[in-house]
Known about the structure:
mainly alpha; Arc Repressor Mutant, subunit A; two-stranded antiparallel ribbon; 5 strands
Amino acid sequence: MEHRVEMMVQEPDLMVREENLRRTLVESAQSGDLEGFLVVVGRVVSDVNMVPPVVAKRLVSVVQTAVMWMEKDTQLTIGQEVLNILQQRGANFEVQANAIRERLAVIHEERQNWSQAAAFYSTISPELGNRGDPTEDDIDRLLRIAFLYLNSDDVDGAEQFLMRAKSYVKVEVNRDYRICQARVQEAKKAFSNAAQQFYSLTTDVQGPTKLYSADPLQWLARAVICAILGKFAMRKLGRILQSRSLDDELNRHIFPHLYRRSYFSAPAGEQRSKMLSKLYQDERCRGLEFFKVLERVHSQKLLKKEHIEVLSERVKLLDIKSEETQQVLDLATTEHNLLAVSVLYTSIKLQSLAELLNISPQTAEAAVADMICERRLAGKINQVEGLLELSKGREKEALHRGDVRFEKICQAADSCCEQLVSKYPQFMPS
Length: 430
């Protein structure tokens, strides 16, 4: 084939030379002579003297079309080889190279090779508009790359391309961006933020979606699950250990239960409680299969085995790494049940607590210790007697804060009335 190609490029007539090369490209592609096909492509791209840029661009367009007609497996191998050859003069054949990259990305996406698809999409050069701004297709591609990285459990990659799209996207109207952002928050285990973002998608259904389903109930179900897990938003273990003044080896002896787990729970906040209340009052949630679980969490009742099994099936659908799914669920249900127990009991044996929650006494003690240290549970552990003593101090403190706020509101109202009366004495009650 190399000798034959050499004869073609020596043809003095440029039009005949181009036609011979074009016919050879088509015939070798159709006959399956892929090695010969690549030889012709290499000569067309590299021999600038015998194949002028204008002719080379037309022939590379023929190459692009020929690759598109090949079998998908062949496209993946030959397409990559062609891209490697085109890199020699990348700027001259950018349009054709982008088309091949997009085709290879689509094939990988169809086969659920998410990271490979994202890699090919990310190498496509942007089609800048007249003012140098990215086009709508460029923005859609950035969001698709983020979507693909999320599917491959690469949260950092997804967030990187989401941030690139953020400067171009009108967040309030692009639903794909908002859904992708909610999924990133979910994957980072910022469940309270994810729940709010998913719920906003169910109330604001404006704008088309190209990557995701527009069904509000799908995002409502996701919002409920994230809200249930919202109290248990995870933070990296290193943050708490960095705040300790002791060295690392001493930490391992004093806080062994922290080292056994990769994440720990963040304090429960009003944000999560308000979100749960809002979802519980939403009539649409009553049609969800796990509404009873939402009801029990909202009412601070114990989650039983059947409720945890229902949650387990739903949590598997979230953007959490598969190896962390059970860990997140166990932590969430255990700590919820501990809070439910704190409402019912003033003291309880650790052994009885473990049996009630269907966990080991060591796990129960470690979880209680974490929650007390993080001030999410009022009480103390009597290790000599194996007893957990719970106090109601936090409820009294909350009531006191509420009384102080109410008193300030009343004082402000009295001050307003005095100022009104001093300025308009005719309104003074007789």
